[in-house]
Amino acid sequence: MEPSAGKADRGTAEDVQTTFRLAVGAVNAGDHQRARALFARVTEARPEIATAWLWRAHLERGVQAKIDFLRRAHQLAPDDARTTRALHRTLLQAGIDRAKAGDKEAARRLLREVTELEPANEIAWLWRVSVAESREDKLRMVDRVLTLNPQNGHALAWRGQLVQDLHRPGAGETAAAGEVNVLVVDDSITVRVLVRRSLEPHGYRVRMAASAAEALEEVERQVPGLIFLDVELPDMSGYALCKRLHGRPRTRGVPVILLASKDGVVDRFRGRMAGALGAVTKPFESEDLLSAAARYLPPRGA
Fold first, then answer.
1. For residue 205, which of 293, 126, 279, 299 has the smallest C-alpha distance?
2. What is the number of helices (H) and of strands (E) in the chain?
3. What is the largest CA-CA distance in the chain?
4. CA–CA distance from 74 to each of 44, 88, 233 (Å)?
5. Residue 2's pLDDT is what?
6. Residue 236: CA count within 13 A, CB half-sphere
7. Cα torsion at 121, 250, 150, 122 (round to 10°)?
8. DSSP characters over 14-73
9. Confidence at residue 7, expressed as pLDDT on a 0 to 100 scale
10. Cα–Cα distance for residue pair 244/239, rounded to 1 Å
11. pLDDT > 60? residue 6
12. Rounded (5°) CA angle 195-201-205
């Protein structure tokens, strides 16, 4: 779309296209500082280019600025699925981070905004449970999760505890909340076993799949609470599988963490666009897996 303002004031279309290409090249070369400056020039000259705002958001370090850029992109392209997912995911992550930092008021505000924009977001509703002000509110939000997905094991365990707590104030965490079901999808048996050995001693039950086909069978058998997904599978790319899982009502709310062989900004960008919440770079340690699991799953018994 060409702007109505004079090209002399805002740069010719050719100049802007050249700057945009240079910015993408800087991203691919790992020069994020130059890329940020170039994309800023693009949005200054042609503020109606939604893709440039999306790139600025992806490269931005500050959370509030990232959200502001995504809002701008979303205003320009409200029907663009990539931009919508990125905005929802960034708001969600900001809410999770605020909850983990103990800032429950900010977390409630951000997570409420996510559920207003995306009412079927199970993850946001679960995190809203963890920062709700009363047991009644917690129970109402857990029931919302179970309406979306009656097989959400985390919500089922939480509901049992909350019902018990409502009848016996002060009761502690029940044994039902002791396990979280995790699926690891990787064609390497070494990686699958490493994930299992890293997580199971800490209360996670790990199931394994060596291909996309096996993973789809596993999620039909039982919806996991979290998925670790290799980006390179023998029958389908991890990005494609992630997108397929994100598109299914049954698994739309399951957090997906990519297992990536390299820490490239473009690969992470592709993962986010496919619906992944984060990535762990190979080779990884047990602490990396535990940290990722703790980051994307709400605290049990909150």
1. 293
2. 15, 5
3. 72
4. 17, 10, 32
5. 35
6. 17
7. -10
8. HHHHHHHHHHHHHHHTT-HHHHHHHHHHHHHH-TT-HHHHHHHHHH--SHHHHHHHHHHH
9. 42
10. 9
11. no
12. 65
296 vs 255: CA distance, rounded Å: 7
Radius of gyration of the chain (CA): 21
- Asked whether 151 and 179 are in contact (CB, 8 A), the reply is no
- In angstroms, rounded to a whole number, what is the distance separating the alpha carbons of residues 28 and 42? 17
- What is the spatial distance between Cα 227 and Cα 233, in angstroms, rounded to a whole number? 14
- Which helix (H) or strand (E) segment holds residue 260: the answer is strand 256-260
Domains of the chain: 9-79 (1.25.40.10), 85-176 (1.25.40.10), 180-293 (3.40.50.2300)
pLDDT given for residue 36 in this prediction? 95
Tokens of 179: 């396990």
Task: Give residue for tokens 């900001």.
Answer: 94
In this predicted structure, the answer to whether residue 229 has a pLDDT above a threshold of 80 is yes
CA distance 184 to 199: 11
Two structure tokens written together for 10: 């805002």
The structure's pTM equals 0.58
